[in-house]
Every structure is written in structure tokens, then in C-alpha cells.
UniProtKB/TrEMBL annotation:
Stated name of the protein: DUF3352 domain-containing protein
Lineage, opening ranks: Bacteria, Thermotogati, Deinococcota, Deinococci, Deinococcales
Signal peptide, first to last residue: 1-21
Domain of life: Bacteria
The entry's keywords: Signal
Organism expressing this protein natively: Deinococcus soli
Keyword set includes Signal: yes
Length: 554
């Protein structure tokens, strides 16, 4: 009976916190405008309760279950009494001593009796300063305080005082009223756990910093791309049957990276579901603008000189991507075929999952594709063979130097490290040996893989995804869509399956395997509660709206 009393107390605190959070103004209405990034909670007590419940089940399967369960109960109570109500942590740009802007942290949360009691032991009895009705003190290099049902902390004194001044009635721009934040949040909606990022504002801060070190031209393409990303808001809300997510990205069409804006806002009518096998374990379909290859190729060219193995130069990958854009359409899909989940757990072969991974791309000019693809595949495969030789050479040079030092100093640790390097090199060589770009056509789609086994599986024929009853029931829109994803309820995993993901030294030792058995059983239970997911992305003007639903048995 005593085990149920803390649970009842926690539930009461969470319920009271959730009710209180709905009767007050949002914290964003008091924070200064100009946040680069925020992490937010809004009535998140149900989310904490469900997540902590899942963690408790996992810990209950180990020897730490009893003690850890009590600790989780305390943590859940504290979070429910603060962040479970409402909380927001933001990174803001403040002006530094030399005039350049630099990031600073400001975090605020609502508090209840439990939170106030804990904070009473951490904050000084006498506050160091006061702004209106709100007091704060310096605590270990930070500025923190608790007043009028709020707890606040900042790395910058002026930033905290500006916030407290707004709370005290001073008229000044606030985060909630700023156009970038309001537009993104309005499109995404309020979520239990949320994030907001202002990439355009971050780009301005970065430009200010780069101007101090005289490197604006060298990194200007990166900053231009960041500026074009605009603003993003999104988050998740838990439900009795899993959770839902919603996001909105407001693309900055005034940004200098115009090609990126076109790529981000691309939409198409999808037909790839008519050629993907119905047995696929996961599908991620995207509207990919024909200029995507050329755009990616330009970025590869910029980093080519920094790539240590010479693969980009040898494969001429940037050039081939640009040429492929001449015959590829607006439709791409990355597909994990049947058996992909278990293949990814194979620690013995890190590339085993490639045997179940294929890509689909719509072809608009078959003659151009037939003319280009043989040279494309040959160039990539020759570069992969060259990569094997480069890795062997670099490993041998390093290992020879290490072994020479080890023999001179009679250092057993260096000898063991040298042996480990030799084993790792051999394993990498075996993996690269089986890596080969292969392709085929099915209808209007080019299928590409790095494993002949995967390509053969994609070409087997049989039922297709578009005719699958569960897929049709998901109700995904294929017209004028920016993208969608679909993952059916996967086959259950066993503890033994998860043991395969551990290094051989652990999974092969009986004593260690016994220690991990309980944890793996609990982990398998958590994973098997996942029953699939669907997501949809659409474009409205310059806003990309994403929604997803995840089925999970809490």
C-alpha cells in the first residue's frame, strides 16, 4: 500500500499543475523578443508521467528497479510541479563588450509548493537585487531568483533585468508579439514539448562574430543557407495511444540562397507508392526538386579539399549529381525493405542494413538516364575500390609507427592498440568490399542500392504499397505534397535480437550476457510497444507544415 501513496501524491501535483497552467498568460508574453532558440513546455505533466512510466518499466527489469523507481518518482514530482505547468528556456543575442552580439541564456518556469521548497535551500535568504516585484541573486556565475510563482535564471544580468522589467509593466517588445515567433508558432500550434529556432537571427549573430575574425567571405555560403532556413517551430503532444507531432518552417524567401528556398518549398504528386513493395518496413518519400543534385554537388565541391580519403575527387560525385538532375523528376523515396530493423542490429556487420535499403527516384528522361548511369556507377565503384586501398595504406602507416614505438619501449598497451587497429582495418575492408552501387528501373522510377541483394528484393514483384489496406487506411495525401512517411507496425523484437547490437566482447561473455539479459528484455518490451507511424508535409506559401502520428502503447 505504501508504494501507491507517492504515486497518488504525484498524480495530484501533476493534475493541479496542468489546471494552473491553463489559467495564466503564456510565459512567452513576458520574454524579450529576438530569441535564437527556445525549448518550451505547455501543460506537459501528462507527457512526463508517460515518459517516466516507460522508464520505470525499463528499470524494473534490472537490479536497480526498486531504488531507481523511487528516484524517478521524486524527479517526476519536481518536474510536474514546474515544467509540467509551463517552462521556457531561450538563447538570446546580447551585445558584448566589443559591440559584437553573443548568445546568452534565459530560462523561466512556473513553480508550485514543492518547487519553492526545494529552491528555498538553493537560493540566498536575502536577494541581491530587485526589479519591481521580482528579486534575484547571483548564484555560481548565474543570476537566479524565485518570485510570484515563477523561477528564473539567466547567464546575463542585463537580459534577466530586461525580462523582469517587462513582468513589472515596462512596455517593450516581447517574444510572443514578434512576427517571426508568432508566425511559426501559430502554424505549428501549442505542444506539450516544443522547440523554436530562428535561423535568420542566428545568421545575423554569426555574421557579427565572423566580422571580428575577418572570415565572412570564406563561410558566407553557410551563413546564407542558414538565413534562408528562416524560422522553425514544432513539438509533440502525448496521447493515450502514442503521440502526435506538428511543425512549421517559415522559409526566408528574401535569403540569398535562392536555390535552397526552391528546394525546401517543392511539392509534387506522388506515384512511387505504386512500385514500392507492400512488405517495406519504412518509407520516407520527399518532393525533391531537380536542382537538388546540382545544389548538393556545389556543397561537395566546397568540402572536397577537406575530405581526407579522396573519395569525392575520385568518384566525381559532384559532377554526376549535377548531370543526374537533367533526367530526375520531383519525386524521391528512401525505403527500408523487410528485415531492415533486425539487420541494423547486426554488430558483426555494420553495413548489413544496406542489404535492405534502396532509393527510388522518378525519371523524366529515360534515354538520358541510360546514357549517364553506367558511367556514374562505374565511377563510384572504382572510387570505393580506391577507398579500400587508401584506408589500408593509412592504417598500415599508423600501425607500423605504433608497433615500432611499442617494440622500442616494450609497451604492451601499444601492442594491444596496434592489434585492435589491425582488426578494425580488416573489418572495414570487408565491409567496403561488399559495397557496390547497383541500379535498375521499374516503371518510371530508378531504383538505386549499394547491395545487389537489396536491389533484387526491390525488383521481386508482388503486392505494392498502394494496394496495402493499412497504408490506404492511413489516409496520406499524395497530391501537391511536400512529402510523407509511413512505417507499419513492425515485427516484435526479442532480447536476443537486441543482444546482437552489443559488441562481441560483451555478447559473447556469459557472465556479461546475464547482466544485460534483464535490461534487454525491458528494452525489447519498450520497443515492441511501438505500433507504427505516419507523417505528412505540405506547403502553404513559404510555410512548410508537418504533422505526424506515432502509435505507442504506454
Amino acid at each position: 500500500m505504501t508504494r501507491f501513496l507517492p504515486a497518488l501524491t504525484v498524480s495530484a501535483l501533476l493534475t493541479a499543475g496542468a489546471a494552473h497552467a491553463q489559467s495564466v498568460r503564456p510565459l512567452a508574453e513576458g520574454l524579450p523578443a529576438g530569441a535564437l532558440l527556445t525549448l518550451e513546455t505547455h501543460g506537459a505533466a501528462p507527457a512526463f508521467k508517460r515518459f517516466f512510466g516507460a522508464a520505470d518499466r525499463l528499470l524494473s527489469s534490472t537490479d536497480l528497479g526498486e531504488d531507481s523507481g523511487s528516484m524517478l518518482g521524486v524527479a517526476q514530482a519536481v518536474l510536474g510541479d514546474s515544467l509540467g505547468r509551463e517552462g521556457i528556456a531561450g538563447v538570446f543575442s546580447v551585445q558584448g563588450k566589443k559591440g559584437a552580439f553573443q548568445p546568452a541564456l534565459l530560462a523561466v518556469t512556473r513553480s508550485g509548493a514543492l518547487t519553492d521548497e526545494l529552491l528555498g535551500e538553493m537560493l540566498p535568504e536575502k536577494p541581491g537585487a530587485r526589479v519591481g516585484r521580482y528579486a534575484f541573486s547571483r548564484v555560481d556565475g548565474m543570476f537566479a531568483g524565485a518570485s510570484n510563482g515563477l523561477v528564473y535564471v539567466s547567464s546575463d544580468k542585463a537580459l534577466l533585468m530586461a525580462y523582469l522589467g517587462r513582468l513589472s509593466g515596462k512596455a517593450a517588445p516581447t517574444l510572443a508579439s514578434s512576427a517571426p515567433y508568432a508566425a511559426a508558432q501559430r502554424a505549428a500550434g501549442t505542444q506539450e514539448l516544443g522547440v523554436y529556432a530562428n535561423f535568420s537571427a542566428a545568421a545575423k549573430v554569426i555574421r557579427s562574430q565572423l566580422a571580428q575574425v575577418m572570415l565572412p567571405r570564406l563561410l558566407s555560403p553557410v551563413v546564407d543557407a542558414l538565413d534562408t532556413l528562416g524560422q522553425f517551430a514544432g513539438g509533440l503532444t502525448t496521447t493515450a495511444g502514442g503521440w502526435t507531432t506538428a511543425s512549421a518552417q517559415v522559409v526566408n524567401q528574401a535569403g540569398k540562397d535562392r536555390p535552397l528556398a526552391r528546394i525546401l518549398l517543392d511539392t509534387t504528386d506522388f506515384g512511387v507508392q505504386n512500385v514500392i513493395p507492400a512488405s517495406a518496413e519504412a518509407v520516407q518519400a520527399t518532393a525533391c526538386h531537380p536542382h537538388t543534385g546540382a545544389y548538393l554537388g556545389r556543397w561537395l565541391t566546397r568540402v572536397d579539399l577537406l575530405e581526407p580519403f579522396g573519395f569525392l575527387t575520385d568518384s566525381q560525385l559532384a559532377s554526376h549529381l549535377e548531370q543526374a538532375g537533367r533526367y530526375l523528376g520531383h519525386e524521391c523515396a528512401q525505403v527500408t525493405l523487410a528485415g531492415g530493423m533486425k539487420a541494423a542490429l547486426n554488430q558483426e556487420d555494420p553495413l548489413a542494413s544496406l542489404a535492405t535499403s534502396v532509393s527510388y527516384q522518378r525519371v523524366t528522361d529515360r534515354a538520358a538516364a541510360d546514357a549517364h548511369l553506367p558511367e556514374y556507377a562505374r565511377s563510384v565503384n572504382e572510387a570505393l575500390d580506391g577507398l579500400r586501398g587508401t584506408v589500408k595504406s593509412l592504417t598500415k602507416t599508423g600501425m607500423d609507427a605504433l608497433m615500432d614505438d611499442a617494440m622500442a619501449d616494450v609497451d604492451p598497451r601499444a601492442l594491444m592498440l596496434g592489434a585492435g587497429m589491425a582488426g578494425a582495418s580488416q573489418g572495414l575492408d570487408e565491409s567496403l568490399k561488399g559495397l557496390k552501387m547497383v541500379y535498375a528501373f521499374r516503371g518510371e522510377y530508378l531504383i538505386t542500392a549499394f547491395s545487389q541483394e537489396a536491389l533484387d528484393a526491390a525488383l521481386e514483384g508482388g503486392p505494392v504499397l498502394a494496394d496495402d489496406a493499412a497504408f490506404r487506411a492511413a489516409g496520406l495525401s499524395m497530391q501537391s505534397s511536400a512529402g510523407w512517411s509511413y512505417q507499419p507496425n513492425p515485427a516484435d523484437l526479442t532480447a536476443q535480437d537486441l543482444m546482437g547490437a552489443l559488441p562481441r566482447e560483451l555478447s559473447g561473455d556469459r557472465a556479461l550476457s546475464g547482466m544485460f539479459a534483464g535490461a534487454m528484455t525491458g528494452a525489447a518490451d519498450l520497443i515492441n510497444r511501438f505500433d507504427g507511424t505516419t507523417s505528412q508535409r505540405s506547403v502553404s506559401g513559404n510555410v512548410i507544415i508537418g504533422k505526424a502520428s506515432v502509435r505507442y502503447r504506454w
